[in-house]
Task: inverse folding
């Protein structure tokens, strides 16, 4: 009898040990899956950053090629002018007015050289600021699905595309609670750059829409854009003088409206970080001739 009791106790102990080991195993397996998911997210962000870096490098290479051509043309003009002046001086046939005209031409060439150097410096600075802004936005927003939010640089402009299913209920221009969370994170980054101006654009698919006071997709896209800027101003303290709202309706699609997936991609709100036009035009001013 005692032997049976000992055997029974041993069996119970083995069973308990087996249960504890199984729970530990499941816990470790869960942590491993979480780690793998996190790694995949980081790898995806890294791929996106590499793609954006490649695009910026391509654009920068194009600008540098143009600058190199301008620099070469400037050097050739300067050399030709110097040779002409020397030849005229040697022949002693240059008049005072002609000499003054040539002197001014040489001064303009020097100003053009300074302009080219300033242009190159400003373009490099702009590329760096755009990349820093993109990384700050991605860091603030976190690991949201790329299908719901996409941050990119295209032709030197930063775009933040947010899916309408993340911001609004279907056919509505009232923001959801989750939208307030996402827009709050975007506002946090933009408020740290007080000189930035941006436009909020509403976009729809091409399905006809009319409901209540909304006559069509123009109305819906515009209402959604103004709802977002109003929220950024009143709830997150964004400067209204730095914001603009626009409705684009269905006329700037990013995908084919013939499929549900394409229509879903087209239903979005886009935040466009606007270039500082006063600085841009000042930069492009040519030296006075």
Result:
């Amino acid at each position: 009898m005692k032997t049976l009791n000992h055997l029974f106790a041993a069996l119970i102990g083995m069973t308990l040990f087996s249960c504890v080991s199984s729970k530990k195993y499941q816990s470790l397996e869960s942590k491993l899956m979480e780690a793998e998911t996190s790694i995949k997210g980081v790898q995806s962000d890294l791929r996106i950053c590499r793609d954006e870096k490649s695009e910026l490098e391509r654009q920068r290479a194009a600008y540098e090629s143009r600058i190199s051509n301008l620099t070469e043309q400037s050097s050739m003009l300067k050399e030709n002018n110097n040779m002409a002046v020397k030849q005229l001086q040697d022949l002693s046939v240059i008049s005072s007015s002609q000499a003054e005209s040539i002197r001014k031409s040489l001064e303009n060439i020097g100003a053009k050289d300074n302009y080219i150097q300033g242009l190159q410096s400003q373009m490099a600075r702009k590329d760096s600021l755009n990349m820093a802004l993109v990384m700050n936005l991605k860091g603030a927003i976190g690991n949201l699905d790329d299908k719901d939010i996409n941050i990119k640089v295209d032709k030197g402009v930063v775009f933040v595309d947010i899916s309408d299913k993340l911001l609004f209920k279907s056919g509505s221009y009232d923001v959801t609670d989750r939208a307030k969370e996402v827009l709050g994170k975007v506002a946090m980054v933009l408020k740290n750059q007080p000189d930035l101006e941006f436009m909020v654009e509403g976009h729809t698919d091409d399905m006809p829409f009319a409901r209540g006071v909304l006559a069509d997709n123009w109305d819906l896209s515009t209402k959604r854009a103004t709802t977002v800027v109003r929220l950024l101003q009143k709830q997150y303290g964004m400067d209204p003088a730095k914001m603009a709202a626009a409705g684009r309706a269905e006329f700037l699609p990013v995908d084919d409206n013939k499929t549900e997936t394409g229509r879903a991609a087209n239903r979005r709100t886009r935040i466009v970080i606007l270039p500082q036009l006063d600085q841009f035009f000042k930069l492009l001013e040519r030296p006075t001739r």
In short: The chain has a mean pLDDT of 78. DSSP finds seven helices and five strands in the chain.
